[in-house]
């Protein structure tokens, strides 16, 4: 029989077995009679991990236990030891779509290496990093109901308890060495457990293998007695089924229906310069790079600000684990350029994030196969998060942000929000307000608050270019309007004109948030010189438009004081990150519209000045430029706040690597 034919027949067999087993287990009415002491261990509450043990004969019934446990903790992950022989691999493929992931191996015997030692290491590592591990102590070849030493060795190495499980249901007893039970549809079943068994608590005289055998047999006997006891009206009857892995079925269906039209949308963006022609297919999940061998962690940041906050975290992970590669995805071209400029590491691969539709997301994950995924701030994509969950890829959220407006929007979709957020292994909120909102929407594991923008390194600079520009400006006083937006630039230019009458040498540098708007801003300023064209301001020029990307570190160092844009009345508002200029000791001001960075500006307090309008902005620039002592005091105060917490990166990097090790 040829290879393709054999593969096709095997695929048909796997699909058929899965369909039958799923139907039989779903239509069985289950009584859950678990020991109260074991329930928190079986659902991984508060980080508990355990070795779940059951006899080999109930292997076809074990998915029902997982279907009960997973809804109690959707971030829970399970690894099951399954033999690496042909039958074992068949079983592994049957249950994999239910997020029951296998570790291949069994005890070495008769001088043959069956992968036992490697499997033991994998199971120990999985337990240490938050996974449940299930094992059949008498498998894969018996003798029946006799505990082998592997499960005991694993429990000792991982310092984890063993939870004995029993299960019975209406079924056929097969004529195999273990008398395996094949469930029949529309029957009655019982799941039971004994109390967790802590090996270190056993007396020196007790034989751990015998104690575990007795506990497993008692669990099986208890299950059999419960199956015969309850009446048809017993309230404990439950119908169990796999957890729905899609946070929003409607979102997924809408994405599927829109998929044929989305290439037209990407073409429209391409025509407007918002996509790169040679890389636009990455938005459809097609990779433009090959996947490197070994461990790979995926980080996603939407735009430039999120990329900058992620940089120290990515760099720390690479330092801590020398064999690690990082996939860093962004949504915008400017963010991609920032990655290329700020993170030129051969172990970092940049790709564009595919649009959030099932087909493209599956294509993306099938190629890259990350060990863990880390999303940033408010990047919450239901389809991609669900696809990661289906593949048992742990997902974390750093700098988690939930604005009041976003919170109200997600409150209108509470089921989707909860189904999405509870799938995160953990969430690290940016502020106490964000923590409260994320928890209210369904985030199950929330870490202490931490803002990565506080922990970033100072922006880099080309020292030679800095010296050249300082010489060209010949000591002129300089103030900088950074990351400005449409609607406030007219006011900033009016401030520049007003102050130029009082201080003829004063130079105003405007850095538009979107460099492609440089020509428009220059036109508003009466044809001001532009950095993108290589133009240097002359003595008669009072405004210079710095419409390049990735040079804020240069301009912050040139400036006497810095105003952070997207914050004056007249623009959309929201503010921008004040940590970057503060970290360099700049005197910093902002307008009143800072809703996207409320906690950050509250953290700085009086170290950053808030100006109500253009008149107040002009007065602040006048005072700071003309008074070096004021400028120095404000800059020192801002720097002290910005550098106060540098330990967050280390803590998060260790947690992220722990997620990647567990897979």
From TrEMBL:
The record marks 377, 453 as: Transition state stabilizer. Pathway: Bacterial outer membrane biogenesis; LPS core biosynthesis. Involved in lipopolysaccharide (LPS) biosynthesis. Catalyzes the transfer of 3-deoxy-D-manno-octulosonate (Kdo) residue(s) from CMP-Kdo to lipid IV(A), the tetraacyldisaccharide-1,4'-bisphosphate precursor of lipid A. It comes from Acetobacter peroxydans. InterPro entries: DUF374, Glycos_transf_N, Glycos_transf_N_sf, Kdotransferase. The keyword Transferase applies. This is 3-deoxy-D-manno-octulosonic acid transferase. It catalyses: lipid IVA (E. coli) + CMP-3-deoxy-beta-D-manno-octulosonate = alpha-Kdo-(2->6)-lipid IVA (E. coli) + CMP + H(+). GO terms for biological process: lipid A biosynthetic process; lipopolysaccharide core region biosynthetic process. It comes from the Bacteria. The active site is at 306 (proton acceptor). Its EC number is 2.4.99.12.
């Amino acid at each position: 029989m040829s290879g393709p034919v054999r593969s096709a027949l095997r695929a048909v067999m796997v699909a058929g077995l899965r369909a039958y087993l799923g139907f039989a287990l779903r239509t069985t009415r289950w009584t859950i009679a678990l020991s109260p002491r074991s329930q928190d261990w079986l659902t991984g509450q508060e980080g508990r991990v355990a070795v779940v043990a059951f006899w080999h004969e109930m292997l076809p019934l074990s998915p029902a236990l997982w279907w009960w446990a997973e809804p109690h903790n959707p971030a829970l992950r399970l690894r099951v030891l399954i033999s690496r022989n042909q039958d074992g691999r068949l079983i592994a493929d049957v249950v994999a779509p239910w997020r029951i992931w296998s570790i291949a191996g069994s005890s070495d015997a008769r001088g043959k290496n069956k992968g036992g030692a490697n499997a033991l290491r994998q199971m120990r590592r999985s337990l240490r990093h938050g996974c449940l591990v299930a094992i059949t102590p008498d498998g894969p070849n018996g003798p029946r109901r006799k505990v082998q030493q592997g499960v005991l060795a694993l429990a000792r190495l991982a310092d984890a308890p063993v939870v004995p499980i029993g299960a019975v249901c209406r079924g056929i007893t097969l004529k195999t060495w273990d008398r395996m039970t094949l469930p029949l549809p529309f029957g009655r079943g019982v799941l039971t457990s004994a109390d967790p068994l802590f090996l270190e608590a056993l007396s020196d005289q007790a034989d751990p293998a015998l104690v575990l055998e007795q506990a497993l047999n008692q669990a099986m006997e208890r299950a059999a007695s419960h199956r015969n006891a309850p009446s048809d009206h017993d309230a404990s009857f439950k119908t169990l089924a796999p957890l729905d892995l899609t946070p929003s079925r409607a979102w997924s269906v809408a994405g599927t229906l829109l998929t044929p039209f989305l290439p037209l949308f990407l073409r429209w963006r391409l025509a407007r310069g918002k996509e790169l022609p040679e890389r636009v297919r990455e938005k459809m999940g097609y990779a433009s790079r090959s996947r490197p061998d070994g461990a790979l962690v995926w980080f996603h940041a939407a735009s430039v600000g999120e990329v900058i906050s992620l940089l120290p975290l990515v760099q720390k992970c690479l330092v801590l684990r020398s064999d690690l590669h990082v996939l860093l995805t962004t949504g915008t071209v400017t963010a991609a350029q920032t990655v290329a400029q700020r993170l030129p590491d051969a172990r970092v691969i940049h790709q564009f994030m595919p649009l959030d539709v099932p087909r493209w997301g599956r294509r993306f994950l099938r190629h890259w196969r990350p060990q863990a995924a880390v999303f940033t701030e408010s990047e919450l994509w239901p389809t991609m998060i669900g696809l990661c969950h289906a593949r048992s890829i742990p997902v974390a959220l750093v700098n988690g942000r939930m604005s009041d407006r976003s919170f109200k929007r997600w409150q209108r979709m509470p089921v989707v929000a909860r189904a999405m957020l509870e799938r995160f292994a953990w969430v690290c909120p940016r502020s106490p307000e964000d923590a409260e909102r994320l928890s209210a929407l369904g985030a199950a594991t929330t870490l202490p608050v931490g803002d990565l923008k506080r922990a970033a390194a100072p922006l880099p600079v080309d020292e030679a270019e800095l010296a050249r520009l300082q010489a060209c400006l010949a000591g002129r006083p300089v103030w900088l309007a950074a990351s400005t937006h449409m609607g406030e630039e007219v006011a900033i230019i009016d401030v520049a004109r007003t102050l130029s009458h009082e201080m003829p040498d004063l130079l105003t540098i405007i850095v538009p948030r979107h460099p492609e708007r440089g020509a428009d801003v220059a036109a508003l300023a009466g044809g001001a010189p532009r950095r993108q064209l290589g133009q240097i301001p002359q003595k008669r020029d009072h405004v210079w438009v710095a419409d390049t990307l990735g040079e804020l570190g240069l301009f912050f160092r040139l400036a006497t004081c810095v105003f952070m844009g997207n914050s004056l009345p007249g623009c959309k508002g929201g503010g921008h990150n004040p940590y970057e200029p503060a970290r360099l000791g700049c005197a910093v001001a902002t307008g009143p519209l800072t809703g996207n960075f409320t906690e950050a500006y509250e953290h700085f307090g009086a170290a950053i000045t808030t100006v109500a309008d253009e008149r107040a902005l002009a007065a602040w620039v006048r005072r700071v430029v003309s008074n070096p002592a004021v400028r120095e005091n404000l800059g020192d105060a801002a720097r002290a706040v910005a550098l106060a917490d540098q330990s967050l990166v280390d803590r998060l990097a260790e947690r992220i690597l722990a997620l990647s090790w567990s897979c």
